[in-house]
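[stage:ingest] chain + small molecule (adenosine-5'-diphosphate)
[stage:ingest] validated
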Amino acid sequence: MRIKVENLSKSYPAPGEPLSILDNLQLDVSGGDSVAIMGPSGCGKSTLLHILGTLESPDSGSVSLGETDPFALGEGELAHFRNTQVGFIFQEHYLLPQCTVLENTLLPLLVTREDPREGEARAKDLLGRVGLLERSGHRPSELSGGERQRAAIARALVNSPGLLLCDEPTGNLDGETAGKVGDLLVEIQESVSSTIIVVTHSQELAGRFNRQLLFSGKNLSEAG
Ligand code: ADP
Ligand code: MG
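[stage:predict] done
[stage:export] tokens:
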């Protein structure tokens, strides 16, 4: 999915002047490309990912996700678009504690009403690829931090989204585990050909992706 953002601005209400976070930001990512976004804490990285993921709307500017202008859609259409076209991986895994790894991976399929057997085959294939097939029946509390993030990767990809958004996906992991999860993200992204945008503080993780962008002020510039 090609991502094209033009003149995107976003501010939050604050006492006195609104707090301007993104100002006339431009971003153009080819379909299937992989991009890392870096920048200091509080500069607006999560805000940008939330807008790209249609969880928040911009104040002004345009966002095209593939052929779609998500902010022109009605509420129901937008929810359907988000559920089927966008996968999210956050710093926290947000797995449901009462559900098994397989059930967690299947959750995004509840809204798409496709044949459950096909969904389950895809979930198991993804769990195999992230090395968790034998742990399918376990609950998140029985997994390590790295394994939980691997389950979150499988869940994010089960609908084969055109866009995969990752917000500090290895931020809670130790260096070695972070490296393995990073390898897995790159390997899986290449095989599913989703466009991937990863926010990270890790130079090492950022270096695994095709492009590195850096926040400078309230806009993005190509790093290096
Ligand atoms: P980053 O992910 O780069 O650390 P964020 O995008 O989370 O930064 O936040 C950017 C700025 O916007 C911060 O100063 C933060 O406090 C502020 N902010 C984020 N969300 C809100 C909100 N819902 N209301 C008001 N301010 C917010
Ligand atoms: Mg953030």
